[in-house]
Amino acid sequence: MSGKREFGDYQTPVDFAKKVCIYLKDYRHIKPSAIIEPTCGVGSFLESSLLFDANEYYGIEINPKYCDTCRKRLNDNRVKIINSDFFTFSSKDLIRDKRQILVIGNPPWVTNSTLSALGSDNLPIKANFKGLKGIDAITGASNFDICEYIILQLINEYRDTNTVISMLCKTSVARNVFKELKRNYINFLSCDILEFDATKVFGINASTCVLIIQLSEKTASSDACNVYNFEKPETVKTQFGYSDGQFYSNLDGETENFDGHCCFEWRQGVKHDCSKIMELTMRNGTLQNGQKETVYIEDDMVFPLIKSSMFKTPVIHNFSKYVIVTQKKAREKTEHIERKLPKTWEYLNDNIDMFESRKSSIYRGAPPFSMFGIGDYSYSKYKVGVSGFYKQPLFSVLYSDDEKPVMTDDTSYFICFDNYDMAYVAMLLLNSEKVQGFLTSIAFLDAKRPYTKKVLERIDFDKIVASLTFEELTKTEAKLNLSCYVTLSMYDTFKSLLSVGQLRFA
C-alpha cells in the first residue's frame, strides 16, 4: 500500500526548515563539511541547509516520486539523492569529508504497530531493540515510533564521532532518545530540545520539538536535557533529566522528595480488546452491549467497571458501566463457563468472530475469550485507582455497594486494600498538595499518558507519612469536598500497619 499515513508523511514547510538551519548556524555555530537527510521527502531540509555551504549533501528517500522532485528542486552538483530504504542503508559510508557531519531532517511520525495494521512493508527489521523483558516485549510497551527508531539508529551509526543530529520529532520521542543515550553510555556533549507549535507548522495537535544532539568522539555525557522555546531560543525554559540516578521531568522544581520504591504493587486494569461485547451499560434495568443489543446472561462474571475517563470524584461506589470478566488469572482455561454459566457461554460464542479478530499477539494460543491484566488482585474489595490520562491526577477509592469487586480498564492503575478506612487514608495521601507536587516533578504532562506504572511505582509511602501531618489530611479532605470522615486514629493505624508491612500486600 502507499499513502501519507503509511510513511508518517508530514513534509516540512521550507520556511520552517530554513528557520531550523539558521538557528543551527547562528546560535549553535555549526559548520558542517557534510550533510545527510536520511528521510528527505521533497527535500525541504536539503534545500534549506545549502546555507551552510557544505562540501557534500546526501538525501535518502524511499518514495521515488519524492526523489524525482528533489532532483529537480536541487540543481546542485554537491547534492546526491538516493532512492533507498533507510532501514537497510548506511548513510555514513557515503561521506568522504567526515570532519563535521550534520544529520538533519524530519523522520516519519508513525508507530510500528500502526504500520503493521496498515499492512505496510515500510518497517524496520522486527526486533526488541530496547531489550524489553517479559510481557512488555509483546504488549504496548514494545510499540515505538518509527521516528524514535530512526534517530536511535543514527546515533548508533555515528556514535564516537563529533556528528550533530538535529531532528524534528514528538517531545515524547526526544525524551526517550535522551534516556537511551544515557542507558547505552553514548558519548555526547549536549542534548537539547526546542519546542515548537505543531498546529502552526504541520496543522496537527501534538507536542513537538527540534531535537539537537551533539555527539562526541571523546568521553562525555550530561545528566540534563535543556528545553527551549523555538521562538525564544536564548533562554533555557526548563530542564529534565537525572538526579541521584532518578529521572525527573523538571530538575528545577522545588517539591517534596517522595521518590523511592512504592510498598504497594500498582496494577493495571483489565485488557480484552473487545469492548463492544465485553463492556455493558445498564439502561432501564437491563444490560446493553456496545452494539446496543440487550444482553441476558448470568451475573456471576459481570462486574462494575470504571474506565479511565470516569475518575471524576474521590470516592466512587455507584456504577452504570460493567464488564464481563472471563478468568481469575491470565491464560486460565475458560471451558468451565459452558457448564456453569450457559447463557454467558452462548453469548460469548455468538460473538466469537469479534474475539478471534483481535490483533494483539498476547491472545495467540490463549484459551477462548481470554483477558489480560487479571489476577487475584482484580478481585480485591477496595481499590485506590487513578486514570493514566489526566494531567491533574485524581486518586479515587473504588468499591461497590453490592460488594462486588470493581474493575478498571487498562489505561487505569490501582492499588488494593481489604479495608475501606485504609483505602480512604491512602486516597487522601495521594491527593495531598505535597504528593501532587511531587508527581508533577516526575511526570511529563504533555505525554499521552502522563501517569504510568513506572511513575506511580516511585511513590514512597514511608516518606509521605513521615512528612504529612493529620491536619494536612483533613485539609485535603475538605479540598476534595468530602464530608469529615478521616480520624487521627485511622491515620495512626495506617502508619502502624505500613511500618510493619501489613499494608504492603493487602
N-end to C-end Cα span: 52 Å
Structural class: alpha/beta
Helix content: 25-40%
The fraction of residues assigned to DSSP E strands is 15-25%
Please tally the helical runs, counting DSSP H or I stretches of 4 or more residues. Answer: 18
Average pLDDT reading: 90
Q: Give me the count of strands.
A: 21
Which oligomeric state applies? Answer: single chain
Low-confidence segments, given as residue ranges, are 1-8, 112-123, 134-142
| Gyration radius, rounded | 26 Å
Distinctive features:
506 residues; alpha/beta; 21 strands; disordered N terminus
Write the layout of secondary structure elements.
Layout: H1 4-7, H2 14-26, E1 34-37, H3 44-48, E2 56-61, H4 64-73, E3 79-83, E4 101-105, H5 112-117, H6 146-158, E5 164-170, H7 171-183, E6 188-197, H8 198-201, E7 207-215, E8 224-229, E9 238-243, E10 246-248, E11 267-268, H9 275-278, E12 279-283, E13 286-288, E14 294-295, E15 302-306, E16 315-316, E17 321-324, H10 336-340, H11 342-350, H12 352-356, E18 382-387, E19 396-398, E20 407-408, E21 412-417, H13 420-431, H14 433-442, H15 453-456, H16 461-467, H17 470-479, H18 488-499
Parallel strand pairs: 1-2, 1-4, 2-3, 4-5, 6-8, 15-20, 16-19
Antiparallel strand pairs: 5-7, 6-7, 8-9, 9-10, 11-21, 12-13, 12-17, 13-14, 15-17, 18-19, 18-21
Helix pairs in contact: 6-7, 13-17, 13-18
TL;DR?
29% of the residues lie in helices and 20% in strands.
Overview of the molecule:
The N terminus is likely disordered. By secondary structure, the protein is an alpha/beta fold.
